[in-house]
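W.,

You were right to be curious about this one. When I first looked at the sequence I had no strong expectations either way, so I just let the prediction run and decided to look at it fresh. Below is the sequence, 189 residues in total, followed by the output.
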Amino acid sequence: MKDWLFSLPDIAIITMISGFLLLGIYLTFKSIKTLKTNRSNRKIVLLIPFVFHIINIFLIDELLTVDPSTSSGNGNPAIPYVFISLTLLITFCIIVFYKTREVLQDKSNLSKKSIVLVASLIFCFVAIYFQMDFVSYVNEKLYYPMGDWWNWWKDIHLNNLYLNVYTFLFGLSMAIAIASALSLLRPEN
């Protein structure tokens, strides 16, 4: 896929990636707007941004992260894309938090809320473990000094370090865990 895509003119690649990011911004605003209404199609409106984020993680990993064995040349032109994508992911996690809290408030079953809380906390710890393993890989195999981790965001070889499956899973799991903990603490709201 990279060979076909990189054979296109730069302006076409930038237009496609920017268009996809604008689609994500639109979907995020649409999700926020739909969350405030009492429509029955809210699940679909949340599913579409979910799929967007999965595709976006793939794009960042495959297209916007340069293999460490190759030279990148011009710094990291994908920093704005990754920053906006992270902002969209955080916003999506907030939307998931509100939706989960709303769903769990309707249920009076304490055991279901507890199971959701424990399961989401397990997913949080699994995501943290694999993310830290990924950071360890960067440190040991790619020879990036751990003392300079704060500057890793500038490197085009590490764009997938901040937005990947593990951070996505962590964000969603944390949103669900906080929502379920709040529903256990304040069931009357």
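Here's what jumped out at me. DSSP finds six helices and no strands in the chain. And, maybe more interesting for your project: The CA atoms of residues 31 and 45 lie 6 Å apart.

Coffee later to discuss?

I.
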